[in-house]
Amino acid sequence: MRRVLDPVLQIVPTVLVVSLIAFLLTSLLPGDAALSRLGLDATQEQLDTMREQMGLNDPVPVRYLYWLGRAVTGDLGNSLRSGEPVAEVLARRIPVTLELAVFGTGLALLIGVPLGILAAVRRDSWIDVATNLFALSGMAIPFFWLGLLLIMFFSLHLQWLPPSGYVPFFENPVRNLHLMALPSLTIAVAFAATLMRQTRASMLEVLNADYIRTAHAKGTPPIRVILHHALRNALIPIITVLGLQMGTLLGGAIVTETVFGLPGLGRMMVDGIYKRDFPIVQGALITIVVAIVVTNLLTDLCYRFVNPRIR
């Protein structure tokens, strides 16, 4: 029980440190939030009044402690532009990014793990060369460039899928899947490339083990040797990459949501930076950090489930 609680308790100082860094960085952003809200026609008196109302005249440490005290209770402040509570904005944006992450991760697993297994089993064959070429290409292409290529091919040339937009899944499932197909594929390609490389390396190491040769000598069917004996023991490095790549996935979601016009956390943070809406940026950053920390915790717990010796 203690081994489970220790990683959970480590989340608290991590989130505190990151929240401080996020608050300081957003405070250093150039521009005037009061001017951004009132417009260029505002008088100096109006700007001074608005800065006082926003609390921008207080020292940064005072503003941080005030913000932290409210954040502990779930109050992340209000948007400087619309006045809407940040928590309500997050409640609308998180499902979009979460859906993109789930679809992207699912596609990456369906593509990357089978290709990695196939490349390891057919080592040094044309299949191995082709899958490695796919992996290198997938890791090299930037998210925004791949997204634009997919839009040009599937939306403009073939006209199979819409280029942008979003509809909630429960409102119109078919339309939602059509709109999420290209963004999910954009996220999945780079993710699948990394998973494929790690799966191949882990499988090659396991396939050369003595117990694999023993299983073959006993007449165990090859498919059972690969999936039951080899893959199961190769899962730990794959799970590690899966957990670490979630941070990259969230970073890629910022670019992908902007390219495809998805109203998720990434788009929310980009808009907040442009509009100097500091509470929005801080809320998005903290949410992303908490998601990454929780993902790493779940990864650690998966180790214990996959390999009982780690317990």
Report on this model:
The protein has helices at 2-27, 33-38, 44-54, 60-72, 86-121, 126-140, 143-157, 173-207, 210-217, 222-260, 265-274, 278-306. It is mainly alpha-helical. Helix content is 78%, strand content 0%. The protein contains twelve helices and no strands. The protein has two domains: 2-72, no CATH class; 94-310, Orthogonal Bundle (MetI-like fold). Helix 5 crosses helix 8 (173-207) and helix 6 (126-140) crosses helix 8. The model has no long low-confidence stretch (mean pLDDT 79). The longest helix has 39 residues, at 222-260.
Q: Which structural class best describes the helix and strand composition?
A: mainly alpha
Task: Give the proportion of residues in helices.
Answer: over 70%
CATH architecture of the largest domain: Orthogonal Bundle
Radius of gyration: 24 Å
CATH class of the largest domain: Mainly Alpha
* Beta-strand proportion: under 5%
Secondary-structure topology with pairs:
Elements: H1 2-27, H2 33-38, H3 44-54, H4 60-72, H5 86-121, H6 126-140, H7 143-157, H8 173-207, H9 210-217, H10 222-260, H11 265-274, H12 278-306
Helix pairs in contact: 1-12, 5-6, 5-8, 5-10, 5-12, 6-8, 7-8, 7-10, 8-10, 10-11, 10-12, 11-12
